[in-house]
Design goal:
The complex is a heterodimer of chains A (116) and B (109). Chain A has strands at residues 3-6, 10-12, 18-25, 34-39, 45-51, 58-60, 68-73, 78-83, 92-98, 105-106, 110-114. With 116 residues, chain A is an all-beta fold. The termini of chain A are far apart. The model of chain B has no long low-confidence stretch (mean pLDDT 97). Classes of the chains: A mainly beta (116), B mainly beta (109).
């Protein structure tokens, strides 16, 4: 069965960076693009970007393209989301998701809190 | 970047039918936007219900259906159950990027 296991909650200071990991299981790691989204408290979903783990190709939202980086480690079978220059507006739950006609699955989310 | 708009809130009676819509600021929503629909209950991750406009996943109850209506993507819920009370999000494709709608809070009352 497909599962996406994300790293634990993070508390960061303004100006710092954060890394969130997502390790899928139950399918071939390189076979599907991984999407990332976030959800600020009480707000809707915001698409952040995607990575093709096979090629390393990425695309980012215009809003965050200067601060977000998605990478994949095929040996570890893990994708990573790095977000830099954090502000309080980056406080959110960060999700990885495999969206595909053959099946769509979401991680349980990683809470990132940015606070001084 | 495109803006995707959904009704902020809707109410449906148990057993009733309701249509949630998803509009795009750049023009009509077509099948080429590959609309997805997701359900999110409080404290949970989203769950995909519909892909590519009108296709259900194996886990999607048959009372949920997707379509294109009047230039918008639509999620139709027929025979609403109390368990369907949740937030619903659409997701549209714009080439290499995707954009979520703002979400519709559906109450079953």
């Amino acid at each position: 069965q497909v599962q996406l296991v994300q790293s634990g909650a993070e508390v960061k200071k303004p100006g710092a960076s954060v890394r969130v990991s997502c390790k899928p299981s139950g399918y071939t790691f390189t076979a599907y693009t991984m999407q990332w989204a976030r959800q600020a408290p009480g707000q809707g979903l915001e698409w952040l970007g995607w990575i093709n783990p096979a090629s390393g190709n990425t695309r980012y939202s215009q809003k965050l393209q200067d601060r977000v980086t998605l990478t994949g480690d095929t040996s570890a079978g893990t994708v990573y989301m790095d977000l830099s220059s954090l502000t309080s507006e980056d406080t959110a739950i960060y999700y990885c998701a495999r969206l595909h006609p053959t099946g769509s699955y979401w991680g349980r989310g990683t809470l990132v809190v940015v606070s001084s | 970047q495109a803006v995707v708009t959904q009704e902020p809130s809707l109410t449906v009676s148990p057993g009733g039918t309701v249509t949630l819509t998803c509009a795009c600021s750049t023009g009509p929503v077509t099948s080429g936007r590959y609309p997805y629909w997701f359900q999110q209950r409080p404290g949970q991750a989203p769950r995909a219900l519909i892909y590519d406009t009108n296709n259900r996943y194996a886990w999607t109850p048959a009372r949920f259906s997707g379509s294109l209506l009047g230039g918008k993507a639509a999620l139709i819920l027929s025979g609403a159950q109390p368990d369907d009370e949740a937030e619903y999000y659409c997701l549209l494709n714009y080439g290499v990027a995707w954009v979520f709608g703002g979400g519709t809070k559906l109450a079953v009352l």
